Amino acid sequence: MIKLRVTDVKQYIYCPRIIYFTYVCPVEKKITRKMEYGKEEHLELDRLEKRRTFKRYSLSEGERRFHQYLRSERLGLEGKLDMHIVSEGEYFPVEFKHTRKGPSLNHKYQLVSYAMLLEDYYNKPVRYGFLYIIPEKTPYPIQITPNARIFVKDVLEKIREIILKERIPRPNQHKGRCTDCEYRNYCGDVS
User: Which helix (H) or strand (E) holds 5?
Assistant: First the structure.
Protein backbone atom coordinates (compact mmCIF):
# COMPACT_ATOMS: atom_id res chain seq x y z
CA MET A 1 0.00 0.00 0.00
CA ILE A 2 1.34 3.45 -0.93
CA LYS A 3 1.78 5.51 2.24
CA LEU A 4 0.11 8.91 2.11
CA ARG A 5 0.04 12.03 4.26
CA VAL A 6 -3.05 13.72 5.66
CA THR A 7 -2.14 16.84 3.71
CA ASP A 8 -2.56 14.75 0.53
CA VAL A 9 -6.28 14.40 1.36
CA LYS A 10 -6.56 18.17 1.77
CA GLN A 11 -4.62 18.82 -1.44
CA TYR A 12 -6.58 16.26 -3.50
CA ILE A 13 -9.90 17.87 -2.59
CA TYR A 14 -8.48 21.32 -3.38
CA CYS A 15 -7.07 20.13 -6.73
CA PRO A 16 -6.17 16.51 -7.70
CA ARG A 17 -3.34 17.80 -9.89
CA ILE A 18 -1.35 18.70 -6.77
CA ILE A 19 -1.08 14.95 -6.11
CA TYR A 20 0.27 14.44 -9.63
CA PHE A 21 2.89 17.19 -9.18
CA THR A 22 3.85 15.84 -5.77
CA TYR A 23 4.20 12.11 -6.51
CA VAL A 24 4.15 11.37 -10.25
CA CYS A 25 5.99 14.30 -11.79
CA PRO A 26 7.64 16.02 -8.81
CA VAL A 27 8.41 19.68 -9.35
CA GLU A 28 9.90 22.31 -7.10
CA LYS A 29 7.15 23.81 -5.02
CA LYS A 30 7.14 27.57 -4.77
CA ILE A 31 6.87 28.71 -1.14
CA THR A 32 4.27 31.44 -1.13
CA ARG A 33 4.06 34.36 1.26
CA LYS A 34 0.75 32.96 2.46
CA MET A 35 2.48 29.70 3.47
CA GLU A 36 5.23 31.50 5.42
CA TYR A 37 2.69 33.71 7.16
CA GLY A 38 0.65 30.64 8.10
CA LYS A 39 3.65 29.05 9.85
CA GLU A 40 4.24 32.18 11.91
CA GLU A 41 0.58 32.33 12.90
CA HIS A 42 0.62 28.70 14.01
CA LEU A 43 3.52 29.38 16.39
CA GLU A 44 1.72 32.34 17.93
CA LEU A 45 -1.50 30.35 18.26
CA ASP A 46 0.34 27.50 20.03
CA ARG A 47 1.59 30.03 22.58
CA LEU A 48 -1.85 31.53 23.13
CA GLU A 49 -3.67 28.19 23.32
CA LYS A 50 -1.51 27.09 26.25
CA ARG A 51 -2.93 29.95 28.32
CA ARG A 52 -6.61 29.63 27.37
CA THR A 53 -9.48 27.78 28.98
CA PHE A 54 -11.54 25.19 27.12
CA LYS A 55 -14.69 27.33 27.10
CA ARG A 56 -14.47 28.18 23.38
CA TYR A 57 -14.53 24.43 22.66
CA SER A 58 -17.58 24.00 24.93
CA LEU A 59 -15.53 21.78 27.22
CA SER A 60 -15.15 22.28 30.97
CA GLU A 61 -11.66 20.82 31.25
CA GLY A 62 -9.04 18.90 29.35
CA GLU A 63 -5.46 18.60 28.27
CA ARG A 64 -3.98 20.03 25.08
CA ARG A 65 -1.43 18.00 23.12
CA PHE A 66 0.42 19.80 20.36
CA HIS A 67 1.94 18.48 17.12
CA GLN A 68 1.35 14.79 17.75
CA TYR A 69 2.73 12.64 14.94
CA LEU A 70 0.11 10.02 14.02
CA ARG A 71 0.32 7.00 11.76
CA SER A 72 -2.03 4.21 10.76
CA GLU A 73 -0.79 1.07 9.02
CA ARG A 74 -4.41 0.12 8.39
CA LEU A 75 -5.09 3.30 6.41
CA GLY A 76 -1.55 3.75 5.04
CA LEU A 77 -1.76 7.32 6.31
CA GLU A 78 0.32 9.61 8.51
CA GLY A 79 0.50 13.23 9.60
CA LYS A 80 1.23 15.71 12.35
CA LEU A 81 -1.88 17.15 13.95
CA ASP A 82 -1.81 20.80 15.09
CA MET A 83 -3.42 20.02 18.44
CA HIS A 84 -5.80 17.62 20.10
CA ILE A 85 -7.72 17.86 23.32
CA VAL A 86 -8.19 15.01 25.74
CA SER A 87 -11.27 15.59 27.89
CA GLU A 88 -13.24 13.18 30.02
CA GLY A 89 -12.05 10.13 28.08
CA GLU A 90 -12.78 11.65 24.67
CA TYR A 91 -10.41 12.93 22.00
CA PHE A 92 -10.95 16.04 19.86
CA PRO A 93 -8.61 16.86 16.94
CA VAL A 94 -8.06 20.58 16.28
CA GLU A 95 -6.68 22.00 13.02
CA PHE A 96 -5.68 25.66 12.85
CA LYS A 97 -6.50 27.39 9.57
CA HIS A 98 -5.75 30.87 8.36
CA THR A 99 -8.59 31.66 5.98
CA ARG A 100 -11.05 34.50 5.63
CA LYS A 101 -13.63 32.26 3.93
CA GLY A 102 -14.47 30.07 6.93
CA PRO A 103 -14.13 26.28 7.01
CA SER A 104 -13.81 24.70 3.57
CA LEU A 105 -14.41 21.16 2.37
CA ASN A 106 -10.72 20.30 2.02
CA HIS A 107 -10.07 21.47 5.60
CA LYS A 108 -13.03 19.44 6.87
CA TYR A 109 -11.74 16.21 5.38
CA GLN A 110 -8.22 16.92 6.56
CA LEU A 111 -9.70 17.07 10.07
CA VAL A 112 -11.71 13.86 9.51
CA SER A 113 -8.48 12.15 8.40
CA TYR A 114 -6.76 13.21 11.62
CA ALA A 115 -9.77 11.99 13.61
CA MET A 116 -9.38 8.57 11.95
CA LEU A 117 -5.68 8.53 12.89
CA LEU A 118 -6.53 9.47 16.49
CA GLU A 119 -9.03 6.61 16.59
CA ASP A 120 -6.32 4.16 15.59
CA TYR A 121 -3.79 5.73 17.99
CA TYR A 122 -6.06 5.64 21.06
CA ASN A 123 -8.28 2.74 19.91
CA LYS A 124 -11.36 4.83 20.74
CA PRO A 125 -13.97 6.49 18.52
CA VAL A 126 -13.70 10.22 17.81
CA ARG A 127 -17.08 11.93 17.45
CA TYR A 128 -16.11 15.59 16.97
CA GLY A 129 -13.20 17.75 16.02
CA PHE A 130 -12.64 21.47 15.54
CA LEU A 131 -11.46 23.68 12.69
CA TYR A 132 -10.03 26.73 14.42
CA ILE A 133 -10.27 29.67 12.02
CA ILE A 134 -7.44 31.97 13.08
CA PRO A 135 -8.69 35.38 11.81
CA GLU A 136 -12.08 34.82 13.46
CA LYS A 137 -10.57 33.26 16.60
CA THR A 138 -13.39 30.76 16.37
CA PRO A 139 -13.38 26.96 16.57
CA TYR A 140 -16.00 25.33 14.33
CA PRO A 141 -17.16 21.92 15.59
CA ILE A 142 -17.12 19.26 12.88
CA GLN A 143 -18.96 15.99 13.39
CA ILE A 144 -16.98 12.90 12.41
CA THR A 145 -19.66 10.80 10.71
CA PRO A 146 -19.47 7.29 9.18
CA ASN A 147 -20.06 8.84 5.73
CA ALA A 148 -17.17 11.27 6.26
CA ARG A 149 -14.88 8.33 7.09
CA ILE A 150 -16.02 6.51 3.91
CA PHE A 151 -15.37 9.68 1.88
CA VAL A 152 -11.80 9.88 3.21
CA LYS A 153 -11.15 6.22 2.35
CA ASP A 154 -12.49 6.86 -1.16
CA VAL A 155 -10.18 9.87 -1.55
CA LEU A 156 -7.20 7.76 -0.43
CA GLU A 157 -8.04 5.21 -3.14
CA LYS A 158 -8.30 7.92 -5.79
CA ILE A 159 -4.96 9.42 -4.75
CA ARG A 160 -3.27 6.02 -4.99
CA GLU A 161 -4.86 5.50 -8.42
CA ILE A 162 -3.35 8.79 -9.71
CA ILE A 163 0.06 7.68 -8.44
CA LEU A 164 -0.14 4.13 -9.80
CA LYS A 165 -1.54 5.06 -13.22
CA GLU A 166 0.72 8.13 -13.52
CA ARG A 167 -2.06 10.02 -15.29
CA ILE A 168 -2.56 13.76 -14.84
CA PRO A 169 -6.09 14.58 -13.56
CA ARG A 170 -8.37 16.98 -15.40
CA PRO A 171 -7.96 20.69 -14.59
CA ASN A 172 -9.80 22.00 -11.56
CA GLN A 173 -13.29 23.37 -12.22
CA HIS A 174 -12.74 26.20 -9.69
CA LYS A 175 -10.34 28.50 -11.56
CA GLY A 176 -10.12 30.85 -8.58
CA ARG A 177 -8.09 28.20 -6.76
CA CYS A 178 -5.37 28.42 -9.42
CA THR A 179 -4.55 32.04 -8.55
CA ASP A 180 -2.60 31.26 -5.37
CA CYS A 181 -1.55 27.71 -6.30
CA GLU A 182 2.16 26.98 -5.92
CA TYR A 183 1.96 24.63 -8.95
CA ARG A 184 0.26 27.09 -11.29
CA ASN A 185 3.27 27.41 -13.59
CA TYR A 186 3.20 23.67 -14.32
CA CYS A 187 -0.44 23.46 -15.46
CA GLY A 188 0.01 24.26 -19.16
CA ASP A 189 -3.64 23.79 -20.06
CA VAL A 190 -4.96 26.10 -17.33
CA SER A 191 -5.04 29.80 -18.12
Answer: strand 4-5
**What's the pLDDT tens digit per position in 6-37?**
999 999 999 999 999 999 988 877 676 767 77
Parallel, antiparallel, or unpaired: how do β-strands 77-87 and 63-72 relate? antiparallel
Nearest to 12 by CA among 117, 4, 140, 52: 4
What's the pTM?
A: 0.91
Contact between 79 and 7 (Cβ < 8 Å): yes
- Residue 113 pLDDT > 80, yes or no? yes
Identify the CATH assignment for 4-177 out of 3.90.320.10, 3.40.50.410, 3.40.50.300, 3.40.50.1000.
3.90.320.10
- What is the C-alpha separation between 119 and 91, in angstroms, rounded? 8
